[in-house]
């Protein structure tokens, strides 16, 4: 079953470089709330997508020795994503939409940071689960989710993006918000030359903050995808 | 590198200077020079019987305003292409602030200097400045508790798309029940939303009654 439509909000962890801060510093990593503006500045500057999707609800910074060396954001994510879990409402879930950590941070910073965030969300909110997506089209398997024991639910189909000739690919939701509709027929009638651009399917992971909700998952958990394996999860 | 004090009359702005400044930013530069003086030398090159400014064209405008007679300049001898390249390098090679360190710095400045004085010089808004100063000052638990509270108090938006004809009917129904909605303001501060709720409630009650 398809849980919803994956928008271009895939989390990517960009850690290609070599860390320059010793591993011992992991203990000093702090997760702090930051404004959406600051999160956007960091993400736009450093994340490979250079964008922060709309609908961001929570934004955190990763601080080490007073320096802001990472950011992670949670937002509404794909439309109807919450329907992956029986009886859930949109308020029961958020989607991890962006995670960027500086290459200067030591190895394992991602799992440390994500662990702190998940524990906080579990302790201090009524959220039941978190969704996350990783994009195989750019070589991402969701290693961080595998390392932090998320459930893998396979590849999720993706809604197309919209090209209206302004150099930006728009999500259907933002297009409807800006122009009143994302219907191609409607846009054409308004003199806008719009066309759809397919997106690749994303690996979809789910993490239950409230473990009592895990039996409600209405798709099977699958083995984690590995490098070189078939993308259909087989 | 030699610094020369050149008469302001011999300095001329580079016609090809790509770096332009709006009035607000120029005012901040004016405030900065008024307060701290010219703390950065201009970079110029000899061109004919005058000197062309490669870096400091905006400062030069203000120095004229201030009736400065001599300007400290670093003089370089460059051809056209290298003059332009150096100007670009001077304008564009710079780092980005680490936001965490900037927040600490701003907090320190705010402790010592009134906000209105800071805002005369820095290109921040008051909200931006305070937001920056508050970075890292809130606990995760406090932030999430506030978020939870805001979620439970939040009014939900629903967007409906209606034809003109449908809209007239909906508006008529809303107007009809609006006096009743005003009496139910405890439900929500949005009276029209409450009016819609009452219409739907009444419909469902009628449906249930008819069905039973």
Keywords:
heterodimer, A: 234 residues, alpha+beta, seven-stranded mixed β-sheet, three-stranded antiparallel β-sheet, 5 helices, 10 strands, 25% strand, globular, disordered N terminus, B: 212 residues, alpha/beta, five-stranded mixed β-sheet, 9 helices, 5 strands, 57% helix, elongated
Fold topology:
The complex is a heterodimer of chains A (234) and B (212).
Chain A: E1 30-33, H1 36-46, E2 56-64, E3 67-75, E4 93-101, H2 109-124, E5 129-134, H3 143-147, E6 151-156, E7 161-163, E8 169-170, H4 172-179, H5 184-189, E9 195-197, E10 202-208
Chain B: E1 3-7, E2 11-13, H1 23-36, E3 42-47, E4 50-55, H2 57-65, E5 70-75, H3 80-92, H4 99-112, H5 115-121, H6 126-134, H7 140-153, H8 164-183, H9 191-211
Parallel strand pairs in B: 2-4, 3-5
Antiparallel strand pairs in B: 1-5, 3-4
Helix pairs in contact in B: 4-6, 8-9
- The N- to C-terminal Cα distance of chain B equals 95 Å
Sheet with the most strands, sense and barrel status of chain A:
7 strands, mixed
Assess the beta-strand content of chain A as a share of residues: 15-25%
The averaged pLDDT of chain A comes out at 85
Largest sheet of chain B: 5 strands, mixed
- Rg of chain A over CA atoms, rounded to whole Å, is 18 Å
Number of strands of chain B: 5
The most extensive contact between chains is: A-B, 30 and 23 residues
Low-confidence stretches of chain B: none
Q: Number of helical segments of chain A?
A: 5
Distance between termini of chain A? 16 Å
H/E series of chain B, N to C? EEHEEHEHHHHHHH
Secondary structure category of chain B: alpha/beta
Could you report the average pLDDT of chain B, rounded to the nearest whole number? 92
The number of helical segments of chain B is 9
* Quantity of strands of chain A, as a count: 10
How would you write the strand order of the largest sheet of chain A? 1-2-3-4-5-10-6
């Amino acid at each position: 079953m398809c849980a919803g439509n994956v928008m271009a909000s895939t989390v990517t962890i960009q850690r290609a470089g070599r860390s320059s801060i010793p591993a011992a510093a992991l203990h000093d990593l702090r997760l702090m709330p930051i404004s959406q503006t600051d999160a956007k500045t960091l993400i736009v500057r450093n994340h490979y997508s250079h964008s922060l999707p709309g609908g961001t609800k929570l934004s955190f910074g990763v601080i080490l020795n007073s320096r802001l060396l990472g950011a992670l954001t949670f937002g509404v994510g794909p439309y109807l994503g919450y329907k992956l879990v029986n009886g859930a409402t949109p308020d029961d879930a958020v989607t991890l939409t962006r995670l960027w950590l500086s290459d200067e941070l030591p190895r394992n910073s991602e799992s440390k940071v994500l662990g702190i965030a998940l524990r906080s969300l579990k302790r201090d909110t009524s959220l039941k689960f978190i969704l996350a997506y990783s994009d195989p089209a750019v070589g991402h398997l969701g290693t961080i989710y595998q390392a932090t024991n998320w459930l893998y639910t396979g590849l999720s189909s993706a809604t197309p993006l919209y090209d209206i000739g302004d150099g930006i690919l728009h999500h259907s939701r933002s297009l409807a918000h800006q122009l009143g509709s994302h219907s191609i027929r409607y846009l054409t009638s308004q003199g806008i030359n719009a066309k759809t651009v397919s997106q690749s399917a994303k690996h979809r992971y789910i993490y239950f903050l409230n473990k009592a909700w895990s039996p409600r998952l209405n798709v099977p958990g699958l083995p984690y995808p590995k490098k070189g394996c078939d993308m259909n999860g087989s | 590198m030699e610094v020369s004090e050149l008469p302001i009359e011999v300095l001329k702005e580079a016609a090809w200077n790509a770096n332009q400044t709006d009035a607000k930013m120029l005012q901040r530069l004016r405030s900065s020079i008024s307060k701290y003086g010219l703390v950065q030398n201009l970079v110029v090159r000899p061109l004919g019987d005058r000197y062309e400014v490669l870096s400091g064209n905006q400062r030069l405008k203000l120095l004229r305003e201030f009736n400065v007679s001599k300007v400290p300049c670093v003089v370089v001898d460059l051809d056209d292409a290298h003059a332009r390249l150096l100007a670009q390098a001077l304008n564009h090679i710079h780092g980005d602030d680490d936001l965490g360190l900037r927040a600490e710095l701003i907090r320190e400045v705010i402790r010592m200097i009134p906000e209105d004085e800071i805002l005369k010089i820095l290109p921040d808004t008051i909200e931006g400045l305070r937001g920056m100063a508050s970075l890292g000052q809130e606990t995760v638990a406090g932030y999430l508790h506030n978020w939870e509270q805001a979620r439970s108090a939040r009014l939900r938006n629903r967007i409906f798309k209606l034809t003109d004809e449908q809209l007239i009917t909906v508006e008529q129904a809303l107007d009809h029940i609006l006096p009743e909605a005003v009496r139910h303001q405890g439900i929500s501060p949005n009276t029209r939303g409450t009016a819609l709720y009452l219409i739907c409630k009444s419909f469902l009650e009628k449906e249930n009654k008819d069905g039973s």
